[in-house]
Write a structure and sequence with these properties.
Length: about 600
């Protein structure tokens, strides 16, 4: 079906068949048109405003794309567009959907707002409904949405058939574009209203990044100390104006944003649920140098349950363990001093596979219970081993469909929405799950590869706007190919420089130049290192730590590897672990303090 042309009488009759609606006359049908813009999602989300939607190439009903939207605990994944209509006129809204509890509806009709829905559509199912506009109604909002936490749904070929309205001409370009408050990750913009505009499209470096209804916007997700160019276009039903004159702004050096982290932070894991050769360290005894303290570990009752429990180290194993009351008091004291205390989920022994929506929901509720009981600042995702792997048909990190991946993303988004902007989210994947993705992603085009290769990439990408810190474990790793197409091995600054450069530069996934994992902001990245030779393979001496930081933040002492930039806003260092650093006379902490102090 060509969605750009008016519907013919036969198709209109088909849409109305079985609905009890009298078919329109031939003369009326001749004037009817499909008013939905980009109803087949062939142009991405152009024309649609979605809270949690993207376009996918499979499954589709027709054409090459369809909508995929994933509801969360507080978001029904609504996608909507506003359409100009004639007053006192009859319209038919129709579309095809897949999934559970999927809705298609129209609001602002001026009469009775309508919707159609399906409880379960394992294959494409058509939904349709009709409405009559009120005597003064000129704009109607059509929408589709799912239901809270029920999993992704798909939609395609959405149409609104009825009398068309001459849209007139696009408005003139906006004038007076200017910048306002500039931070390390955002730029505020404002401009003079354009006559006849119903909305405005905001462009960053030539790419549309927002559509707003007013004459101001704040562009977020920017990198510190980076220059950006902005333009604005005015939009109405006839289309989009030419772009405005360009204004430029350079973001500041950064300082932590909503999470209040210092410009350079020291992150460490505290053995809170077990003891080993390093001995137990009481939370109150952790020095003030540590800005983020990850309580290790919350673990599941079984691999697939999603039921996470955090058990304090028993006195028989940790004779000097503090009471629950003292432990909670120490958390409050650390927070009063500006530190962040997180629950870390997973670890070497805590395999977590959220293979079902039930496990996802249990994960959210059980993690929330831990956070609430101890008054924690957020969550660290430390999934290792076989927690994350990709199905054979899951080849696009931007549009994952493997349940353990999709459910983890959904669960973390729900937690972020529940606790708000101050919620601290960190991740500690191994190099196998991230940088190895430069060469291999999942089982590969011809199969046979390890399905875990690069499996963290869709999680990081989907959550990058909510991500406070990524600190990849640059230890216990085999050789990894860097952006210079050379293999780099643990044991010196070179490995840390190459691995971190990949995160800050971005890289093609599985060698596909058309499928690039975008760079993270430097304030989102810390370098993961073992605190001592006892803590893990890949320990490097303090001098190598200093070389790493010199190269990445000042581009000196780089050795043989040529970085693709200089990042003075690099957030800092992470180590396994605080306990092992104490065992080694605080060598790692003293190196950090000496460099950034």
């Amino acid at each position: 079906m060509d969605r750009s042309r008016p519907f013919v009488a036969v198709l209109t009759a088909t849409l109305l068949a079985g609905t009890g609606i009298t078919a329109l006359s031939s003369a009326a049908r001749a004037a009817d048109a499909d008013l939905a813009r980009n109803g087949g999602f062939e142009s991405g989300l152009d024309g649609w405003t979605c809270t949690a939607g993207t376009t996918v190439t499979s499954p589709v009903r027709s054409g090459s794309s369809a909508l995929q939207a994933t509801p969360a605990g507080s978001d029904n994944a609504r996608c909507a567009q506003t359409v100009t209509v004639k007053p006192d006129s009859q319209y038919t809204l129709a579309g095809y959907v897949r999934g559970s509890y999927v809705y298609l509806g129209a609001g602002g009709t001026g009469t009775t707002d309508v919707s159609a829905w399906t409880q379960s559509a394992p294959n494409w199912q058509q939904l349709s409904t009709t409405f009559r506009t009120g005597p003064s109604t000129t704009r109607v909002t059509i929408y589709t949405h799912g239901w809270y936490g029920t999993g992704a749904y798909h939609a395609d070929d959405i149409s609104l058939v009825g009398p068309s309205v001459d849209p007139g001409r696009p408005p003139a370009p906006p004038t007076g574009l200017r910048t306002g408050t500039v931070t390390s990750s955002s730029v505020a913009l404002s401009w003079t209203a354009a006559s006849g505009a119903t909305s405005y499209a905001v462009y960053r470096d030539g790419v549309k990044v927002q559509t707003v209804s007013g004459t101001s916007a704040t562009v977020t997700g920017l990198s510190p100390q980076t220059a950006y160019a902005f333009q604005v276009a005015a939009v109405n039903d006839a289309g989009e104006s030419a772009k405005s004159a360009t204004v430029t702004a350079t973001t500041t050096a950064g300082g932590g944003g909503d999470t209040d982290l210092p410009p350079h932070a020291l992150v460490g894991y505290l053995h809170a649920s077990f003891a080993n050769g390093s001995g137990y360290t009481r939370l109150a005894d952790v020095p003030d140098s540590w800005d983020v303290i990850d309580l290790a570990f919350g673990e599941p009752t079984s691999v697939t349950s999603g039921d996470i429990r955090f058990d304090r180290c028993p006195a028989a194993e940790c004779p000097n363990v503090e009471s629950d009351a003292d432990f909670k008091a120490a958390i409050r004291a650390k927070q009063a001093a500006g530190k962040k205390v997180l629950i870390s989920i997973g670890g070497q022994n805590g395999q977590v596979q959220l293979s079902t929506t039930a496990a996802r929901d249990t994960f959210v509720s059980s993690v929330s219970k831990i956070i609430d009981e101890y008054g924690l600042d957020g969550l660290d995702i430390d999934f290792e081993g076989h927690s994350l792997s990709l199905n054979a048909d899951d080849t696009d990190f931007k549009n994952p469909k493997t349940p353990v991946i999709v459910n983890l993303i959904s669960a973390v988004k729900t937690l972020k929405a529940r606790y708000g902007a101050d919620f601290v989210l960190t991740m500690a994947p191994e190099t196998f799950f991230v940088q190895l993705g430069y060469q291999y992603y999942g089982t590969g085009k011809w199969g046979g590869q390890d399905p875990r290769a690069g499996a963290y990439l869709p999680v990081i990408h989907a959550l990058r706007d909510a991500l406070t810190l990524l600190h990849v474990q640059d230890y216990n790793s085999g050789p990894i190919m860097g952006l210079d197409n050379q293999y780099h091995s643990m044991g010196g600054a070179d490995f840390h420089i190459a691995m971190t450069d990949m995160l800050l530069t971005g890289f093609p996934v599985a060698g596909d130049a058309n499928n690039v994992f975008p760079p993270l902001r430097p304030d989102q990245v810390a370098i993961g290192m073992p605190a001592s030779t006892n803590a893990g393979n890949g320990h490097v001496a303090p001098a190598e730590v200093v070389k790493t930081l010199d190269c990445l933040t000042r581009k000196v002492n780089c050795g043989s590897y040529a970085t693709h930039g200089t990042w003075p806003a690099l957030r800092g260092l992470m180590t396994w672990s605080i306990n092992w650093d104490r065992y080694s006379n605080w060598e790692f902490q003293r190196t950090f303090d000496g460099y950034f102090g």
